[in-house]
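job 3f2a | input accepted
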Amino acid sequence: MDYIKDINKARSKCNRIIGLQKLSVSGLKIPSPIKIIEPLSFEHYRNSKKFSKELKAAITAAFLKIRAKNPHRGVYAGRAYFVPGIKHPPGPRSSSVKSGEIILKEVKKLFEFAIKNKFDQKGSEIGVILYPFINPKIPFGGGCITPSLKNKNLAVIEAIFGVDEGVQSFPHDTYIVDFHKKLIISRKVEIKSRCLQVSSELEYQTMAVPKQLQATQVLRDEQIFKITADFRRFTNKYGLHRLEFAVQPEGIYFRECVIFKPVKVEEKGLKIKASVLRISKPEDIKKIKQNNRVIFIDPQIIRKRNMDLLTSLAFNIVRKKIILYPGSASTAHAATILRERGHILVFVGKEIFKSGQKVDIGLKRGQLAVLKKYDS
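job 3f2a | predicted structure (376 res):
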């Protein structure tokens, strides 16, 4: 019985698995080997409420194979969910796991998350991805490359020291590149005083960037051109996508890709003045009332990858809300679940809002934005 398959042998409707397969077929550098814990494994777990001896042995064997080929790296365990009606279902994640016992707990956590949030509905596929964790540490970094909304020949690269999730929460570099002419059109090099790094098997921590690096460019020009060349090759084959990357001494790895569809602003007439309710912990969700129209997601939730809280927020608010979300549209992929549940997203970059603070929201250069905020 095949509880686990190699990435190139898996047949799945899950966007994450399909994305990794596309990256592999395109010849881009990806973590290797990648193992897929199949939906059949989840069904066995759900039916018996525990891992069978055979399933436990299969997961452990896959973990050991990955570690054997990557002795200096831990193993990542991530969601591989397909849920009808939800394009990008969220889930918890691990990081650099080096213990067989812990990897079993991480797989269990991913299965239990799917059960708790009722993702295991008819037609769903609940699986788990295992692969060697690519862990950029200062002075290496990561980020994403996205098609430009203004010019089909341009791409936007956002990069930061440490892991790529840092671009959702901290000041980071932005490079605009003409990938047909191999030309950097513009570069915005921010002061990067903080970033995210994996500090242990399961923890992401905010790290201070050394002063001598804070004002330096995260990516060298040749790395920028390498990323854009790979991006061009990929998009020529599969169309517009957002690709996430991580830089290592031996090269640039691509860890995920998502089909890129510009979000159309449907709330063209939206212009309101309202008070903000800040969500920082699960208990705050209970405070949301009908008249709370504007919700601010505390950046700590994003930094800590608290998918339980974001999912609970998305599924437990009946009325449509305006969500003030840290980061930008190109980096805030965890926010997709909120949009899919009918809420309106307003990306606020690095701005911080307090509960009770009044804000004006409306269109700015064709995008929803906070036009003004008042002292509370």
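job 3f2a | The chain has three domains: 4-132, 141-259, 272-373.
job 3f2a | closed
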